Records
---
Amino acid sequence: MLPAEDLVETGGSQDYMIRMGILQVLKTQFLCHLIICYVFLVSGIIINLVQLCTLPLWPINKQLARKINCRLGYSISSQLVALLEWWSGTECTLYTDPESYKLYGKENAIVVLNHNFEIDFMTGWTFCERFGVLGSSKVLAKKELSFVPVIGWMWYFLEIVFCKRKWEEDRKTVVESLQNLRDYPENFWFLLHCEGTRFTEKKHKISMEVAEKKGLPKLKYHLLPRTKGFCVTVQNLRGTVTAVYDSTLNFRNNEMPTLLGVLNGKKYHADLYVSCKIKINLHEFPCMTVRRIPLDTIPEDESECAAWLHKLYQEKDEFQEHYRQTGRFPGPITSPPRRPWALLNWLFWVCLLVYPLCMLLLQLLLSGSTFTVVCTFVFCIAVSVGIRWMIGQTEIDKGSNYGNKDMQMNNN
Ligand SMILES: CCCCC/C=C\C/C=C\CCCCCCCC(=O)SCCNC(=O)CCNC(=O)[C@H](O)C(C)(C)COP(=O)(O)OP(=O)(O)OC[C@H]1O[C@@H](n2cnc3c(N)ncnc32)[C@H](O)[C@@H]1OP(=O)(O)O
Ligand SMILES: CCCCCCCCCCCCCCCCCC(=O)OC[C@@H](O)COP(=O)(O)O
């Protein structure tokens, strides 16, 4: 027979398991998703409107307008971070050397990252949040994303650099947008997915044909990097940015995480790298590797800079090979802890928006008007379709044709 304390303990743990089971089931419920999406959409639109109200401030006090917009942007993007960190419980492990770690979040940096996963952007944002640069984070993003409600509109005020991925048309606007960032009042990370599009087998095959034509070594895990964006970023942010963070992101157990999976409360394990010696258990967390490269060591000349980037991608390919072989990146883990701010911001919006929603629905039902009830129902369906379209923007299957054809005919 078990002693009394053990029985209590077993009972306690059973209770815990049951509670966790219920929570897990709750996370898969459509109603929960609807509430989460409603909060995201309504809070996002409110914030977009407040951002719009900052427009008159720009000519008077640009730096203040930028700082306000960083906070407002944080309030939107941190909701997706909270969804990843607190709702799905996804764990993020960082492999990096402790000396570089001290500088993260305290300097401007260009982040060069592989582009394989549908939730790359959320995982990137999570690391930004942990180092306090989420509100100010930047990216060279495809123009199509600027039309996505809430996020795309928010990016306009955060001075995100957009490109059509047609260099002749992009050259001028990209340079101008980069020049604007030279006096940015907050530390920022500038994200570059040099591959230009997400990895698919077809895009990989075509890009390796291009590599062969150019006499470049083949890559196994990456597409051939597009060098123009990187070179122009380095040229225009020299003196503003101090380092390039060569980053590689992987998810454990060959998982391909999705935003719908995260919304359903599925826990993933991400890994990001810099250099490691400590022994760790690699079967539990997602993983990312970061190498800090001082910007002065990158060649100024455009063709040398392009060659440098090709060399970097060959090294990145070796890191990936190491990860595939051993299930881990080399180097010590120096992971920043999860902070409460994203969760608190989320709870704030939930408290603010869910109560009026319940009251409104109650009033509608009590009104007894079939017309009003039908209108509300149709409105809810329209919102769900809108959100589903937004989620579709993250899905690789629905991705662009960029890189599906050789040379310059490869647009959307
Ligand atoms: C540490 C944790 C992370 C921190 C995160 C920090 C911040 C987070 C912030 C925000 C998070 C949100 C994330 C949102 C993500 C959205 C990302 C995107 O939208 S990715 C798509 C847009 N971005 C890019 O494309 C950037 C990379 N591209 C470039 O730099 C391009 O050069 C360009 C500037 C876009 C211009 O492209 P274009 O195609 O017009 O010209 P290129 O000269 O580059 O291409 C021609 C060149 O390529 C060769 N070629 C032809 N076909 C292919 C092929 N299939 N594959 C490879 N190469 C090909 C061709 O021969 C030409 O060669 P050459 O240059 O020698 O003439
Ligand atoms: C709390 C939050 C609730 C969330 C509810 C759902 C909200 C939906 C939010 C949708 C966010 C849309 C932002 C999309 C950012 C996707 C970035 C991305 O990865 O783009 C792909 C491009 O790089 C390359 O494109 P391809 O050439 O591969 O094609």
Note: The radius of gyration is 23 Å.
---
Amino acid sequence: MYELTVKSRFSAAHSLCGYPGDCARLHGHTWTVEVKVCGHELDKLGMLVDFKDIKRQLSRIIDQLDHSLLNDLPEFSTGGSNPTAENLAYYIYQSLLKPVAELRPGLKLKEISVWESPDAYATYRED
Ligand SMILES: Nc1nc2c(c(=O)[nH]1)N=C([C@H](O)[C@H](O)COP(=O)(O)OP(=O)(O)OP(=O)(O)O)CN2
Ligand SMILES: [Zn+2]
């Protein structure tokens, strides 16, 4: 089994509704997103998948988040959930599941991790 990891960053603001502390107030982070994909077969170039292809798919999602107020995204404004690192990891996972699988047969999205700071991150993966 091979595993590839790609990271990217974006800047965005959020507030955590109902949080018992200062995170309930509007504030911002430079978020880091890490994508892990896995599969068994390499192509004739010796790649599981080109890093560039994963980066391109991740950029499609991140470009919509960059310099935004995350609470305004439909996923959070209409869904009523907070834009936590956990919920963002879930959102990005669901957004990338099909595009990653379509890059090549046998390629799977393994997990998404989202850092709010260098010291704290959340990961979403399917059981
Ligand atoms: N499980 C989670 N806990 C917290 C989240 C989250 O998304 N999931 N988010 C926050 C706030 O967004 C907060 O801004 C981040 O807190 P923290 O990582 O502690 O960052 P700080 O810059 O506030 O660091 P300090 O060392 O506490 O000053 C809170 N919890
Ligand atoms: Zn925060």
Note: The domain at 2-125 is CATH 3.30.479.10 (Tetrahydropterin Synthase; Chain A).
